[in-house]
UniProtKB/TrEMBL annotation:
Localization per record: Nucleus
Keywords (A to Z) from UniProt: Metal-binding, Nucleus, Zinc, Zinc-finger
InterPro entries given in the database record: FAR1_DNA_bnd_dom, FHY3/FAR1, HTH_FAR1-11-like, MULE_transposase_dom, Znf_PMZ, Znf_SWIM
Residues covered by region (Disordered): 1-44
Name of this protein: Protein FAR1-RELATED SEQUENCE
Chief localization: nucleus
Similarity-based family: Belongs to the FHY3/FAR1 family.
Record-level GO cellular component terms: nucleus
């Protein structure tokens, strides 16, 4: 009787693609008892659907089945209905199916609309629950009339099932919180961490992902990106008119819309000339208000502080846009490629660097990798997460490739990560991030995790959800100026600090007068350690090892006539600072000064050649920068004794009086006043 009525009723599919891939009518769906149903996980009987189970409404039946599915490791969706509210007997049946039921729908191609090539999760799974409306004694209710829990795919673990779209939800309260965070300009990653702390949940355990948050922010976008792009180009042209040394490049698509834009400032180009040997290209950020990929080039100066090199905004992040960005950056820097470039784990970026910077060593930024660890491993490792992380850092800092490989194998076995795809992927890319594989390349200390904090602090100064795209270039300029001023103050503070000599060796006192305090502190560490090493001369060099060890050690080659020294540990090649092994050999060989070539220009204080450059340079900004460096050196040298300080104070007072007697053009006064008010 019921099947005859069903054949005459209106059948509606929530997803049309299911109509041709699933058949869940009375003839194909037998009514099963709980004993005949193979359950996916150990589940209490009172939460297992069974034939005849009753619900007051069909929505109540859906919620019950959804909770059951979540415990078992899958999610569900509404499949089809029979009948229609307000027509005849109304809605009489509902079918709920596994989220992997049905087959991939065939999409009609549209040349004018870009297609999203996303892999479907559907595999024709036949698991389902059917409920039918029954009216007895005038009170309608819904009963389970069909149930099958057989799946043709693997079910997810409890710590994985929560990532299914059906279980990822952002409450209204969380939406308001996210939008408030967005107005403060913090990144999505920081939003997630704050909300984890507020809700007292472990990293990676919020009921939504970073992608969900970005989609939410995108839905609240109110500004027209096309109008903003026009204003952005106009702003760049205006800056270029005022400052000919400002550089920018852009591309337009076939519809004359802005596709990519990159820029760099005069001060950034000057910094790159000296400190562009090692560069971080950070593409992990987005302009929140427009959901546009943002790339930032930064480096490290001779005082161990970040310096800005350039910026790029693209409509899409792909091999073509990244290749264009790198080409534009090289154009800004007069074709000079860095020795080393550090990036996030991005296959498109890897290909673009190989194409545009073939001679540059590409490596993965360790802090960008570690930032993903909570979402990758926290749920998997539980209480052992911190123990595993400490072991990972130990392996990361090893010197020997052989020790790394043996340690990695033991780590995988001890923590049961043999089948973990993230661990397997990290190992496959180990030559791009693990220090034992990278020590023969120069990184200028940029592998230190602590550097990420100062770089991120700098980036957050101009990342704002409410930023007008047209004003973004100016905001970056203000942030760069602020960073330069802060760096100058820190430089002066470093120079004013009294340097304490720890070894009394002539090499130490000589290096202290040449290197910046930051670089000298790194060298001094090695000088102190060198005293604990013994050196043994061989036919082709020296063997150096710790005085307590009888095996191991390093091979050092030294040619006193040529002033060339090298060590098998490759520390100088890696950091630009001589290692304890080489310093030990120099000390044994009665060398009282470190050879000039091993005191790199990028780690030195300003030298006397700057005074010549100051007179020969026609660039106003460059001359100001050189003068600042000279003033910094003046303070450093003057602070060493009372006599020096007295002479400096007297001479600077005379010099200031002479300078103030010189006339200043009215336009310069107006420009200076304007800049001062902004600050």
């Amino acid at each position: 009787m019921m099947s005859e009525e069903a054949g005459q009723m209106l059948v509606v599919y929530d997803d049309p693609s299911d109509q041709r891939s699933l058949s869940l009518d009375d003839t194909s769906s037998t009514e099963e008892s709980p004993d005949e149903t193979r359950l996916s996980l150990e589940t209490p009987n009172d939460v297992i659907p069974y034939i005849g189970q009753r619900f007051a409404t069909h929505d109540e039946g859906y919620e019950f089945y959804s909770e059951f599915a979540k415990r078992c490791g899958f999610s569900i969706r509404r499949h089809r209905t029979e009948g229609k509210d307000g027509v005849g007997k109304g809605l009489t049946r509902r079918y709920f199916v596994c989220h992997r039921a049905g087959n991939t729908p065939v999409k009609t191609s549209n040349e004018n609309k870009p297609q999203r090539n996303r892999k479907s999760s559907r595999c024709g799974c036949q698991a389902y629950m059917r409920i039918s409306k029954v009216t007895e004694l005038g009170a309608p209710e819904w009963r389970v009339t069909g149930f099958d829990n057989h799946h043709n795919h693997e079910l997810l673990e409890p710590n994985q099932v929560r990532f299914l779209p059906a279980y990822r939800t952002i409450s209204d309260t969380d939406k308001s919180r996210i939008l408030m965070f967005a107005k403060t300009g913090i990144s999505v990653q920081q939003m997630m961490r704050l909300m984890e702390l507020e809700k007292c949940v472990e990293p990676g355990y919020l009921p939504f992902t970073e992608k969900d948050v970005r989609n939410l922010l995108q839905s609240f976008r109110k500004l027209d990106p096309e109008d903003e792009s026009v204003d952005l180009l106009r702003m760049c042209r205006n800056i270029k008119e005022k400052d000919p040394n400002f550089k920018f490049e852009y591309t337009l698509d076939s519809d004359n819309r802005l596709e990519n834009i990159a820029w760099s400032y005069a001060s950034s180009i000057q910094s790159y000339e000296i400190f562009g040997d090692a560069v971080v290209f950070d593409t992990t950020h987005r302009l929140t208000a427009f959901d546009l990929p943002l790339g930032i080039w930064v480096g490290m100066n001779n005082y161990g502080m970040p310096c800005f090199f350039g910026c790029v905004i693209s409509r899409e992040e792909n091999s073509r846009s990244l290749s264009w960005a790198l080409k534009a950056f090289l154009g800004f820097m007069n074709g000079k490629a860095p020795q080393t470039i550090l990036t996030d784990q991005n296959l498109c970026l890897k290909d673009a660097i190989a194409k545009e910077m073939p001679s540059t060593k590409h490596a993965l930024c360790i802090w960008m990798i570690v930032a993903k660890f909570p979402s990758w491993f926290n749920a998997v490792l539980g209480e052992r997460y911190n123990e595993w992380k400490a072991e990972f850092y130990r392996l990361y800092n090893l010197e020997s490739i052989e020790d790394f490989e043996l340690g990695w194998r033991d780590m995988v076995n001890i923590f049961g990560l043999l089948t973990n795809r993230h661990v397997a992927n990290l190992h496959a890319l180990r030559n791009l991030w693990a220090l034992p594989y990278l020590r023969s390349h120069f990184f200028a200390g940029m592998t230190a995790a602590g550097l990420s904090k100062s770089i991120n602090a700098f980036i957050q100064r101009f990342l704002s959800a409410q930023t007008r795209l047209a004003h973004f270039v100016e905001q970056v300029a203000v942030a760069v100026d602020f960073k330069d001023q802060a760096a100058e103050q820190q430089t002066m503070q470093q120079n004013l600090q009294n340097i304490s000599l720890k070894t009394g060796a002539p090499m130490e006192s000589h290096a202290a007068t040449v290197l910046t305090p930051y670089a000298f502190s790194k060298l001094q560490e090695q000088l102190v350690l060198a005293a604990h090493y013994a050196s043994f001369q061989l036919d082709d060099g020296f063997h150096v090892r710790h005085h307590t060890k009888h095996v191991g050690g390093r091979k050092v080659y030294w040619d006193p006539r040529e002033g060339i020294i090298s060590c098998s540990c490759n520390q100088f090649e890696f950091s630009g600072i001589l290692c304890r092994h080489a310093l030990r050999v120099l000390s044994t060989g009665n060398c009282f000064q470190i050879p000039e070539r091993y005191l790199p220009m990028r780690w030195r204080r300003i030298n006397t050649s700057s005074a010549k450059l100051l007179h020969s340079s026609n660039d106003h900004g460059e001359r100001i920068q050189l003068l600042q460096n000279m003033v910094s050196s003046l303070i450093t040298e003057s602070a060493k004794s009372k006599e020096r300080l007295d002479i400096a104070t007297e001479q600077v007072s005379i010099l200031l009086s002479r300078i103030r007697d010189q006339p200043v053009p009215p336009q310069v006064i107006r420009d200076f006043t304007s800049i001062y008010r902004k600050l």
